[in-house]
Amino acid sequence: xxxxxxxxxxxxxxxxxxxxxxxxxxxxxxxxxxxxxxxxxxxxxxxxxxxxxxx
Amino acid sequence: xxxxxxxxxxxxxxxxxxxxxxxxxxxxxxxxxxxxxxxxxxxxxxxxxxxxxxxxxxxxxxxxxxxxxxxxxxxxxxxxxxxxxxxxxxxxxxxxxxxxxxxxxxxxxxxxxxxxxxxxxxxxxxxxxxxxxxxxxxxxxxxxxxxxxxxxxxxxxxxxxxxxxxxxxxxxxxxxxxxxxxxxxxxxxxxxxxxxxxxxxxxxxxxxxxxxxxxxxxxxxxxxxxxxxxxxxxxx
Lengths: 55, 236
Fold this sequence. Notes:
The complex is a heterodimer.
Chain A: H1 2-10, E1 17-20, E2 23-26, H2 27-45
Antiparallel strand pairs in A: 1-2
Chain B: H1 11-16, H2 21-32, H3 35-38, H4 54-75, H5 77-80, H6 84-113, H7 122-144, H8 149-164, H9 176-205, H10 218-224
Helix pairs in contact in B: 4-6, 6-7, 7-9
């Protein structure tokens, strides 16, 4: 039961919100977007392992 | 009655059963999805790039989602809301979804900037788009199943939009049992079917070449040039 109560209370937290003027975004969402942009950039520039050995 | 000679039976029809729906289906599948296209042994050299990894990354994420989802659904909410192992599998399910969506979005961006609908691949692009949309709906029903204040908030924000669209009676976000069934039966089947179709279309048409390698793509070459001997380059 104690576990249930703590699980419930932990989900009440509103999370961290960042804002610039009218623009507001939750920190978790911002992190996910930045990670996707970084993955996109790295996929274009990083060499693929074993790629040179192939025909 | 008359002496008109009947035409000799078509050799194919006589031997292959092409007049039955099973025979016709087999011929259609062998023509469009021959085994060497379904399970190729090699790919063009430009596929050795991180840009070609994210689609299969999303499929790997989906496999983890389905496997963890099966475990969650067989054990039930009383298990995954309370026990340590249940929490862990629940978290695996959530983080697989996070990775699935991140990989799918990066895949979408890369394919958009490659104009991946070239060379008769329009249906591949459309099924990918449908897969994304159905996945969003499936993930939405998953958020509703957290049975916490977040899910209650999300449900009661969403119900107004769904009622305004006229589907609230059939897709009632305030009905937890109904949403649970959508989440574990119909929507996973829809996501799975669309993703399978998407992957089959990729296999059937081949992966799209980079923009500057378009002349080595058999299907693009057919529509743009009539160079006869470029085929030899395709699998090298």
